Amino acid sequence: MLDERYQVKNATEEKEPPVLANVQKALATGYYMHVAVRGKGGNYVRLKEVDKHPLRLHPACVLKNAAPKWIMYGELMRSRDLVVRTVTEVSPKMLLQIAPEYFDPESFSDEVIKEALMTALAEIDEEMSSS
């Protein structure tokens, strides 16, 4: 078990950012529906949920102090609050590349989310036209 943790740690070190990005993309292909965005008060809100109950990062989460804007989570626990574990930071651009139909900007009513997705979509279009 320790050997596996050591390998994952080495695969995500700063000196190899493409590896981390590839791991995040692989996770996003399966967990793209488990995305939340940071809202008011530092809590997160799931993107495509009607209830919009706030989510908190698990107290042991290493991203707690970093407070990324967009996260993808592997586990949602219900205690006194809704808490997410196994969290990684994601970008709107990555999400649009993985699941463009699901993250269609027109399907969101929240203007902040819609704007972030539109900006990411413009970046993708620009990259495609320049290559």
Q: How would you characterize this protein structure?
A:
This protein is α+β, with helices and mostly antiparallel strands and 131 residues long. It has helices spanning 2-11, 17-31, 92-98, 111-130, and strands at 35-38, 44-46, 55-57, 70-78, 82-89. Helix 3 packs across helix 4. Residues 1-6 have low confidence and may be disordered. Residues 23-102 form the DEAD-box helicase OB fold domain. InterPro entries: DEAD-box_helicase_OB_fold.
The counted number of beta strands is 5
Could you say which overall geometry the principal axes of the C-alpha atoms support? globular
Helix/strand structural class: alpha+beta
Taking the alpha carbons of the first and last residues, their distance comes to 43 Å
Strand content: 15-25%
What is the mean pLDDT?
84
Number of domains: 1
Uncertain residue ranges: 1-6
The helix/strand order is HHEEEEEHH
Give, in spatial order, the strands making up the sheet with the most strands: 2-1-4-5-3
Radius of gyration: 16 Å
Q: What count of helical segments does DSSP give?
A: 4
